[in-house]
Amino acid sequence: MSPAALTPTPAPAPVQPPKSNGVTTMSTGKRPTEVPHPPRTAFAFDPLEDALAAFARGEFLVVMDDESRENEGDLIIAGALCTTEQMAWMVKHTRLTGGWGSGYICIALPGERLDALEIPMMFPDNQDPHRTAYAVTVDYKNGTTTGISAHDRALTARALATSTAPSDFTRPGHLVPLRARPGGTLARRGHTECGVDLCALAGLPAAGLLCELVNDDAAGSMARRDDCRRFADRWGLKMVSVEMIAGWRRAHPEAGL
C-alpha cells in the first residue's frame, strides 16, 4: 500500500454554524441508513483507503482489535464531526440488532490534549487488565443541560476536539475521555490508540469517539468478528482492524504520526 494511496482526505467543508468559544455547536452529519438485504459474503475487511475516506467524511467505522486481545469490535467516529443524530444512533446501536444498550461512549485523546485541558486520570493506579486509561468524565458547559442527551454528548465531543480552555468543561460529566499512549497503535494495540491514529490519518483533530458493540442476546455478549461484519454490512459501514492501522504505520514511518 503506497503512502500516496493514504494521503489524508480533507473533510468536506461544513455549513458555517453558530459557534461558542470556537466550538462548533451544530453539524450536518447523518446517521447510517440500514441496508434492507445486505449481501452475505466470505469475511473480509474493507480496504483501508476506503475506510479512511469514509472516516474523513464523518462516517462511522467498525474496528476490530486482535483476536488474542479483547477480540471486540468498536464503533469509531471522529469526535470533531459527530452530530446529535449520529450520537443518538451510536448510543442505540451499542446493541447489535438495534436494542438499546448501555451507551457507554468514550473519546480517545492524546495525553498532551488531556493535560492542556486539565483532565486528570480517573484513578492513579490503573488496574484495568488491558490498561485502558480512563480519565475523569466531563461535560461541555456552553449550550448543554444535564450533559447526558445525545445533543450534549455530541457537543462535548466536538469541544474536546477543538476547545483550548479547561474552564469550558465541568468535571465529572457524562463523556469518558481515554488517554492514548504515545506512539499510538505502535505502542499499544487498543481501540483508544486506533481512534487517535484514525483521526491523524484522516487529517482531523485527534479525538476519536468510540463505543463497544454488543450482541442483542440475553447475556448482552460482546460482538465478535463475524457479528461485527454482519453489523457493518447491515448499516453500510466500512470495517477495518487495529492491526491494519498499526501495519500501515510500521510500513510508513515517514508519515511522522
Secondary structure elements and pairings:
Blueprint lengths: L18 E2 L2 E2 L23 H9 L4 E4 L8 E6 L5 H9 L13 E5 H6 L21 E3 L9 H13 L6 E12 L10 H11 L6 E5 L12 H11 L2 E4 H10 L6
Parallel strand pairs: 3-9, 5-7
Antiparallel strand pairs: 1-2, 3-4, 4-8, 5-8, 6-7
What does this protein look like?
- The protein starts with 18 loop residues before the first strand and ends in a 6-residue tail after the last helix.
- It is globular.
- With 257 residues, the chain is an alpha+beta fold.
- The longest helix is centred in the middle third of the chain and has 13 residues, at 150-162.
- A hairpin with an 8-residue loop joins strand 3 (61-64) and strand 4 (73-78).
- 27% of the residues lie in helices and 17% in strands.
- It has one domain (50-252): DHBP synthase (Alpha-Beta Complex), CATH 3.90.870.
- It is built from 7 helices and 9 strands, in the order ββαββαβαβαβαβαβα.
- The strands form 2 sheets. A 7-stranded mixed β-sheet has the order 6-7-5-8-4-3-9, with helices on both faces.
Summarize the structure.
This protein is an alpha+beta fold and 257 residues long. The chain has helices spanning 48-56, 84-92, 111-116, 150-162, 191-201, 225-235, 242-251; strands at 19-20, 23-24, 61-64, 73-78, 106-110, 138-140, 169-180, 208-212, 238-241.
